[in-house]
Amino acid sequence: MVFNLSNNKKVILPYIYFFAFCLSLGKVAQADSFVVGVEDLNYYPYFDFPADNSSFTRALLDQFAKDNGHQITYRILPIKQFPKWLYEENIDFKFPDNERWQEINNIHHLTIFYSDEVVEMTAGTLVLAKNNNKDAASIKTIGTVAGFHPTLWLDKIAQGQVILFEDASPTILVQYLINGLIDGLVINLAVANNELEKLHKNEKIVFSNQIEQEIYSYKLSTVKYPEILKQFNQWQVKRQKYIEELKAEFGISAVEPKAVE
What we know:
By secondary structure, this protein is α/β, with parallel strands linked by helices. It is 38% helix and 21% strand.
């Protein structure tokens, strides 16, 4: 059979263009590029983007992107502007996030979408193990990361019953606790344990069992791409074994609430 291109090009060319267009769409769908806003903070093992170090968050999100044909870049943003990221910064997603952090800060009344929980956390007060039997009334000074909100202590701080010390470095805060400069510390236990290891200290830090605790979680959030969050949720279910292995690798499994109940 002889095909005469010149006689049929008016018929064929539109199909060629359409086919090429479909191929281009497929390539775009497999190569979506997203910007994730992350904190300007060394909070290892959860994240340490300023130093460009490996961390649980980077490993998790990089693997999600790889498995789903996306490209992710991370934009390091100041913690004190954390509530404003989704409407003041040119980002597609925010991590970590949680509904309760936005309840009083969503002044633009954005519709914010949240993923399922990525990792569970305990909001409590860290103390030296030898002081674990002391009650809340014995806590006169607490420390936390600058930009964090020690929600369980805000009333007592406002009333002047407790003095708050802030520092951008978890290392400094752990040293304050070890040296008795503060009575309690409001950061994550895995982070505190990492700092103890770096400092080569034999002290043991624990959540006080005499002081109120709450359970919350890290989530991925967006105002632009709820469909990608659905994909992320499905991926978390599918890759549950991988995620649990990742938590164990970074020392997070041991401090998740379900592990210490």
